[in-house]
Every structure is written in C-alpha cells, then in structure tokens.
Amino acid sequence: MKKSGFVVLLMVLLVGLCGAADAAAKDILIVADQYDATTMDPIAHNDVPSSRVCYELYDTLVFLDNEGNVSPGLAESWEFLSGTEYKFNLRKGVKFHNGEEMKAADVRYSMMRATTDAGAKIATYSQNVKDVEVVDDYTVIVHLKKIDYSFFSSLAHSWGSVINEKATEAAGDSYGMNPVGTGPFKLVSWQKGNKYILERFEDYWGPKPKYKTLEVRSVPEPTSRTIALETGDADIAFPIVHNDLKRIEENENLVLFRRPQNSTAYIGFNVTKKPFDDVNVRQAIYAALDIVGIQAASYRGVGKVPGTLIPSAVKYSINDEIPPHVQDVEKAKKMLADAGVKDLKLEIWTNERKERVDSATIVQAQLDEIGIKSEIKVLEWGAYLNGLMEKKHDLFILGWVSTVPDPNFAVSGLLETTAIGASNYTFTSDPKLDEMLDKGRSLPDGDERAAIYKEMQLYINAQLPMIYLHNDESIAGTQKNVKGFAPRSNEIHSFRGVYFE
Amino acid sequence: MILYIVRRILFLIPVLIGVAFCVFTLLYLTPGDPARMVLGEMATESAIQEFRRKEGMDKPFLIQFGNYIYKAVTKGDIGSSYITKRPVMNEIMATFPSTLKLAAFAIVIAVIIGLPCGILSAIKQYSIFDTLTMIFAMIGLSMPVFWLGLLLILLFSVYLRWLPPSGFDTFKAMILPSLALSAQSISMITRMTRSSMLEVVRADYIRTARAKGQKESVIIWVHALHNALIPIVTLCGLQFGQLLAGAILTESIFAVPGVGRLMVESIKMRDYPVVQGGVLFVAVAFSLVNLLVDLLYAYIDPRIKAQYR
Q1: Which residue of A445, A476, B125, B132 is surrounded by the most CB atoms within 10 Å?
Q2: Residue A420 contacts B, CB cutoff 8 Å
Q3: Nearest CB to A123; choose among B44, B50, B94
Q4: Which residues of A163-179 are buried (b: 16+ CB within 10 A; e: fewer)?
C-alpha cells in the first residue's frame, strides 16, 4: 500500500511542477494522422501521408474538388490543342515560399524532373510526358507521347506540384526535408517520425487559411488517436477504426465523418496457374463464397461489397448498380465438376491486416464445403509482394487505391498487360481488355468514354480475375468546433479551408 | 584502470564487425526486394535496375559487406537512408534523444521505486508489506506494456485529464510512457534487491555488526546494501541497455518518435542502411552501458577494482 501511495504522491508532484497548459486563442490546428510523411518532395513518394503534406505545401496546375470536378489552380485556364497537347495559361504574381515568382520555367522544370529516375515512384503518371514547351513566362504546352485524357486529372495529384528550380537544385538530395512550394502553408519544422509544423504563407495567392499554424502528429496506435480526440489533444484524427466509431458518435463534443473511399480490396487469382486459368473454375469459386457475409463479418459494418472494380466515387462507375452476389454451393460444385476439377488444393495468401486474415479464414471454410482444401499463408508485406512477383501464389488478398479519381487508374494498374511486373499480380494479360483501356484513355470525358468504361466493368466481372471483397471508407473524427473539413475519397484530406467556430 | 577502459573499447571492434556481419547476412536473406519496396509498385524496370546499381546491390554479397565495412571504418560513413536520402547517422540521431530520455526516465523511476521496496521487503520478510510488494511485482512483471499503457492513458488522460495521452515534447508528456515502460523494470529490480538483500542480511558480518551494537539503519544501508548491490547494478545495466534498444510497443502507444519505431518502420520499408546502422548503434550503446556497469563494480567493490588492469 505504501508503494501505491508513493506513486500517487510522485505523480501529483510531477504534475504540479509542470503546471497547466494555457488556453490561448485558437490559432493552431492539431491533426493526429496514422503515419508521418516519408518525404516532402512531391515526386519522391507514392504514399498518402506524404501526398497530404504536399497538398498543403504546393499547388498544382489544376485542382480536384471532393466530387472529382476540375477547377483552376496555378493554371487560370487551359485548352486541349489536341489529344497529346495541353496548353495552360498560368496565374500571374504567384509567389514561392522563398519569395520568387512562379513562372513557366518552373512548371517545365517540375514536370520534366518527374520523368527522370527521381520520379520512379510516380512513373505511372509521369511516363507519358514527352516535353513541356515554354511559350512565354505565363504559358506552357505539355506534349504527351500518346493520347491519354486520364493524364489531365492526374495533374491534380501531388506529383503535379510545381516546385522552385533554384531551391530544389540548391537542396539536392535533401530537398525532401526542405520543400519550397507555392501552397498556403510553408514548412517550419519537421521532427521525422513525430510531427511536422507548417505556418500560413502570408503571400499566398489564393484564399489564406484562417488559422496560423498547422501541426500534424503521427500517432500509429488507433486507440491513441481516438483518445487524443476525446481529451482535446487533437482537433482532427484519422483513420478511425471500427472499434472506436461508437465512442466518437456518442461523444457530444466530437463529430464523426464517414465517406466511401476510392479503394477496392479483392481476392485475386493467379490466372497463369492451372486450374485458375479457366474462367469457369474462377466463377465456381466465386459462387461458393458468401462474399456479403464475409465482408460484414470481417469489416464489422464499415464499407461495402463492391459490384465492380471502379469505386463508386470515381466517374463512370457502375459499382452500385450490380445486384449483390448470392452464394450458391450446388452451382459451384456443378461448375467445378463440369470443368473437370477434382481434389483441388490451394493456398490463400494475405498480409497481416486483421480483416484480411479473418476474410481468408472464412473463405477457407466455405471452400471446404465444395471440396476444395486450402491453406492460409500470412506474410509480412515485403515477403508478400516478393512472393507475388515470383508467381508462386494461387489466391491472394490485396487492395488498390485510386488516388487519382479517373477510371483508368482504377483498372490499368491492376489488370493491364503493361502492369505485369509492377502491380498486376493476377498476371492478367487480355488483349481485349488492353484495347478497351487504350480506347478509354484516348477519349475525352463524355458519353462515349462512359460507355467504354461501363462495358469494361461488365467484361472484367465476366472474366473474374479477382473477386471483389471490400470498398473501404475514409473515416475521420473532429472536434465539434472544427468546421470546413471533410475527408476525401482518395484519403488526401485537406486542411486549407478548416476554421474554428 | 585507464588501460582497462581502453582495452574494453578496443574489444568493441570485433564485436561490432560480428554484429554488422550478422545483420548484413540476415537482411540479405530476408525475402522482399528493397529496390521494389523503396520505389513502389509503379516503378519501371529501368529505374529499379538503376537503383540496384547505385546502391551496389548488383554486387556479390561479400563485396557488398566489404564495401560497407571499408566505408564505415575509413570515412565513418554507414550509408544513407533509401527513403529520405539523409545519412543514417542523422536519422538515428533524430530519434535517439527521445529513446534516451524515455529509457533514462524509466530506469530512474524503476530504481527510485524498486530499490526501497526490495530492501523493505527483505528486512520485513513474510510481512504483509513483503507479500503485497511481491504480488505487485508479479503483476508488474506479467502485465503486457501495451495494456498497462492504455490503462494509464485511460486513467490519467481520459478520466483525470492530468497528462497528455501521446507525444513526447514536454516533461508532462514523458511521464506516462516512462511509467508504463518502467513497470517491468520496477518489478525486476524489486525482486532482485529483495533476494540479494536476503542473502546478505544472513551473513556473518551482519550478525557481527549487530552484536557490536551498530545502529540498524547503518547496518542495512551501509553494510548490507553495499554488498548486495553488485547483482542489482548488473540488472539495472541490462535493463537500461534493453530500454535503449528501443521499446517499440511503448513508443507506438504513446507516439514517441524513438529508435524502436524507426527500426520497425525501416524493416517494413526495407530501408536496409537504416536497419544496419540502427543495430550497430544499439550494439555500441549496449556495450558502453555494460562497460559503465563494470566500472561501477570497481567503485562498489574494491576487490574487483584490484582485478582491473
């Protein structure tokens, strides 16, 4: 008893020594994110936390709003000269954080730099750039290697950020820690792995943030993020896990935001391996699974079962128009017998994410019902990707996020022949699908383009290289007095327009 | 004595080369291609080849290891992070202060609480105090730190609102993580002190001291404790060394940007230079703490001092 008394005494003394924090006027927004940014160089990353900070530090030629609509950014207006030539008229008087004016040469420098090995991580977006022509200080023409209208909305992704040539060259390899952009915030300090602090850029060309300081902390433990909200330690926290949803909903000082995310988790087949090269076998396995039940049990009421590969918030998606899948064990057995498959044994691979392991366990039990014996292999991320690369897998559970909300990016990275050796782990190589993807890219937005993607989604569903498991949600919690914030479907949440009430 | 210290420090060199070799081999054998992990799924084949060439990954294993040791010894260069491109030493030094503070704070708490509890338990063996202390010590030893950490946050941050639940910038924010981390050390030090003291208080010279009428407090604090200290100091040193190696669970729960988290993140991202550098750094820190403990022995026990040459 003396011991616990001593501890309490010690705590009281320590707390007393520290004093209470003063409650000054609210001029700082504190955000609790899961991970820290890896770099603040807009072309040296392909992860969401880094894209988020780049979104505050830099501007892109065009902006995308929460609904996926394009609006002017650093470019006041633009013109499609042809399918491979986009002309941009730049805004005048835009200042970089180092005081220099943003001009056409900076746009050229930024975009050409992205096509070098420095931009290997975002090569998907930049590889089509042939050249950027500087017409005058405020006009550029982007020349593409081949027609690709999906390129235009990708310019709003952080890879399209305009950087300052002088600052970038001066910083060299350390540019990722010393960013200079034209965005509404500039970097004050960055304690890697802990937090970064940004400050309002007083010379910003657009609407200035209503608060002075933005502090983003990395809090990897989900419960700790929720607690940070409850104690008022953080104004905004995300992602919120399903265990904590109720706690935030029921807390009258907090607000919970839920929004469908542009992501799809799927159970993929290695279509180069027998018998999964047979579409009937794939369809038989699909028929044996109660996907709706699996999703509900594993993800506990968050998200939904996708109907197609293109998530609902991406244009031309028919995700919500497909009727829900119904399990049919007898049909599955018959299809399997018709395909001549007997005594099938397979492996289901997944990484350590709990929801995926849970899903694999239920899939295993349901496959057992149609006489398929399976083994679950849970692998660490690096080893997992390596194994997939080596084509050793049968079934595997993985996910895909369309950071750029264009249907092309939802499909091409997963199923196009050119993505084999990169992120096409089903090893699908289908000339008909490749052709449709090419056509989709070659058309400007409109009915014709919409028709192509609708046909494509149905075609993929019939071919079934993967069974869709889950469309996730972007879930964030905020204090009640935080206004002007809403999570975005691509997870690149923005804090520019946030204010306190 | 100085000769002894110099010799001990020289002994570090083969130890470090051995550690470096083990880490190098383990990482070499780990599945997962660093080039692909670092550059991401969208990278082109040419970019990946270029990365391998630039980082020397296209060379045979022994040459890679030889180059690493050569650069480390001649230039003090243990590489740069694949991800941030910053020198590994900068990466480690950015996180080490937090870990050092956390470890130091935890070990101080452990000694302040563990030592008196252990002593009191020993001199009042089988009393209620002794029983309760041993029960608490057993609980402290068995309680997983991630659970204890959350309980502490619930009590002190959510209900009492005294302390912040995460972060590591202020003195106030350091209390909870240190307390959570020290629980196991408190228990171990308490138990070790108790058993060590129990052995000593039955020794003949203690009886002699009592017989000649020495005051009880002097007997306990001067005669007994002094002689019981060696195993306790050893344990404290070991504990401190382990804490320095990073306390990944505590660091995750309380969002402390320490070495443990850096290492785990680097392993996940296959940022091999940081992993290698980090392990080497921890090995050096551990060895130095051990050296310090050995030197403390000399201070505590003149017989040991006589052996140091």
Answers
A1: A476
A2: no
A3: B44
A4: bbbebbeebeeebbbeb
Residue in this structure with the two tokens 């497909």, named with its chain if needed: A322
Total residue count of chain A as it appears in this document: 501
Is residue B144 within 8 angstroms of chain A, CB to CB?
no
The predicted model gives B268-296 an average pLDDT of: 88
Instruction: Give the residue on B whose Cα is nearest the Cα of A233.
Output: B164
B175 alpha-carbon distance from chain centroid? 18
Rounded Cα distance between B261 and B250, Å, is 10
CA dihedral B188, B190, B195, B196 (to 10 degrees): 90
Are A493 and A238 in contact, with CB atoms under 8 Å apart? Answer: yes
Q: Which domains does chain A have, with CATH numbers?
A: 263-471 (3.10.105.10)
> The tokens 């081999």 sit on which residue?
B25
- Chain B residues touching A31 at Cβ < 8 A: none
> Omega of the bond prior to B144 within 30 degrees of 0, cis?
no
Q: Which of A39, A120, A382 sits opposite B270 (nearest CB)?
A: A382
Instruction: Quote the mean pLDDT of chain A.
Output: 91
The beta-carbon neighbor of A117 closest among B50, B167, B262 is: B50
* A6, A18, A225, A402: best to mutate for the B interface, most B CBs within 10 A: A18
- The DSSP symbol for A60 reads B
pTM score, whole prediction: 0.85
Q: Where are the alpha helices (DSSP H) in A238-328?
A: 245-249, 279-288, 291-299
- The answer to whether residues A62 and A156 touch, using CB atoms and an 8 Å cutoff, is yes
Provide the Cα torsion A427, A296, A310, A241; round to 10°: -100
One-character DSSP codes across A14-47: HHHHH-PPP-----EEEEEESS--S-S-TTS---
Give the distance from residue A184's alpha carbon to the nearest chain B alpha carbon, in angstroms: 24
CB pairs under 8 A between A and B: 161
Nearest beta carbon to residue B255 from set A2, A224, A387: A224
The string over A100-109, giving b where at least 16 C-beta atoms fall within 10 Å of a residue's C-beta and e elsewhere, is bebbbebbbb
Report CA dihedral (A23, A29, A30, A34) to the nearest 10 degrees: 170
Nearest CA-CA distance, residue A48 and chain B, Å = 13
Greatest mean pLDDT range, A14-28, A88-102, B69-83: A88-102
Q: Which residues of B touch A393 (CB under 8 A)?
A: none
Tokens of A134: 């500087």
Q: Nearest Cα to A410, choosing from A376, A359, A456, A477?
A: A456
For residue A24, pLDDT beyond 70: no
For residue B231, what are the contacts with CB-CB under 8 A and spacing of at least 6? Answer: B192, B196
